[in-house]
Amino acid sequence: MSAGAKRRRAHASYGRTPGTQCLGKDRYATQTAADASMAKHAGFIRSYRCPVCKYLHLTSKPKREKT
């Protein structure tokens, strides 16, 4: 994580303003980086593209099926 990202995370007001909910999550620019992180950390099963920051985040939830 970059120094700038650490500063933003330290001063974030999570969930208080629109668009800040992803500041507390690790971000990955490529699918390869996200997959490598998933291999290191137990519990994550997939990555998803964040509509707010446009980076990839990891989740432990399965993908929802459309009804």
Throw out a few tags for this protein:
2 helices, 67 residues, alpha+beta, 2 strands, two-stranded antiparallel ribbon
Rg computed from alpha carbons, rounded to a whole number of angstroms: 13 Å
Kindly name the structural category. Answer: alpha+beta
Given the structure, what is the number of helices? 2
Shape: globular
Please count the beta strands (DSSP E, at least 2 residues each).
2
The residue ranges in which pLDDT falls below 50 over 5 or more consecutive positions are: none
First-last Cα distance: 37 Å
The helicity comes to 25-40%
The overall pLDDT, averaged over residues, is 81
Q: Strand-residue fraction? A: 5-15%
SSE string, helices as H and strands as E: HHEE
- Give me the side-by-side strand order of the main sheet: 1-2
Largest sheet: 2 strands, antiparallel
Describe the structure.
This protein has helices spanning 3-10, 31-40; strands spanning 46-49, 56-59. The protein is an alpha+beta fold and 67 residues long. It has a two-stranded antiparallel ribbon with strand order 1-2. Strand 1 (46-49) and strand 2 form a beta hairpin. It is globular, with a radius of gyration of 13 Å. The termini are far apart. The model has no long low-confidence stretch (mean pLDDT 81).
